[in-house]
Amino acid sequence: xxxxxxxxxxxxxxxxxxxxxxxxxxxxxxxxxxxxxxxxxxxxxxxxxxxxxxxxxxxxxxxxxxxxxxxxxxxxxxxxxxxxxxxxxxxxxxxxxxxxxxxxxxxxxxxxxxxxxxxxxxxxxxxxxxxxxxxxxxxxxxxxxxxxxxxxxxxxxxxxxxxxxxxxxxxxxxxxxxxxxxxxxxxxxxxxxxxxxxxxxxxxxxxxxxxxxxxxxxxxxxxxxxxxxxxxxxxxxxxxxxxxxxxxxxxxxxxxxxxxxxxxxxxxxxxxxxxxxxxxxxxxxxxxxxxxxxxxxxxxxxxxxxxxxxxxxxxxxxxxxxxxxxxxxxxxxxxxxxxxxxxxxxxxxxxxxxxxxxxxxxxxxxxxxxxxxxxxxxxxxxxxxxx
Length: 387
Hints:
Elements: H1 7-10, H2 13-25, H3 34-47, E1 51-53, E2 61-66, E3 69-79, H4 106-122, E4 127-135, H5 143-149, H6 152-155, E5 158-167, E6 175-176, E7 180-183, E8 186-194, E9 198-199, H7 209-220, H8 222-227, E10 234-242, E11 249-250, E12 253-262, H9 265-285, E13 289-298, E14 301-303, H10 305-319, E15 324-325, H11 338-343, E16 346-352, H12 371-385
Parallel strand pairs: 3-4, 3-5, 5-16, 6-15
Antiparallel strand pairs: 1-2, 2-4, 6-16, 7-14, 8-12, 8-13, 9-11, 10-12
Helix pairs in contact: 2-4, 3-4, 4-12, 7-9, 10-12
């Protein structure tokens, strides 16, 4: 499988492993990636890239690498942030920041794009310009949206953009992709139930917010089973219930929080509508009131057909036709690369990392063996787009 990887890329592996382990030691969460950003800046400068920018997000970095001939512009993107997770790995490059770790592999993604940038800065036999985008705050805070809103695509005439993610427990060194929706939208909701507090020994004198909240939670499950077309995909998950602080008081308030995942805007619209209707209706039944806050965080990650075809061909060049899966089942997870795909055509692909702890697990550790494969894929994208 490694036979189709340029020896100059393979030669970068040991150095890339050192970069990855350094980034892993110093994890930083959304919009706090100052050391990570400085490390990336220092490396890009040492590679001799043509231009470097930091104004599109508080901790984002954008580099420009020009080929030997004029041509179109394309973008390659990596996320750089870590998670609020206490690491449980026993490795010599374990997180040095208590309660934070790279539990999703963004240390590896950053390294992949650094390796790609170093190769391209040394081998400029392509027609056009490559923009390498190191994006902060992918986890929950929408760094991709921030970079788009701050003029990333107005400043650089990028015509297509590509991203990737490592996937543990998918076949090592194999690529997984599909045209159309690959990952779901990400919405959140808060429901504040207000009733009438009372002594627990005299519940008839109050309007019980805990009973109301539990009925709301149960009723929300009917959105998927009774409101949405069975052929559509939707997840409505309640993830928090907060109410009360003692044994003998019926609390005045209860708060329900959760998330909604879907692939289609019309499904999002219906889910939001039904959450509000159910919360209001159930609350009225129990002489309480419901205030609903619904926030649309990330849109669905939707791959563009032409860019997906190009990505498939590039992946097949690197690992062979039988190791590129083109109709993978979509994920209900979310990804803020979606904001970039809303503006520009492009494709997002998964690269199997073999067996290991799942993403966001305290024992997750990026598989360094896929680094050359991932860089080779990005380089093949550049060849295909800018030949």
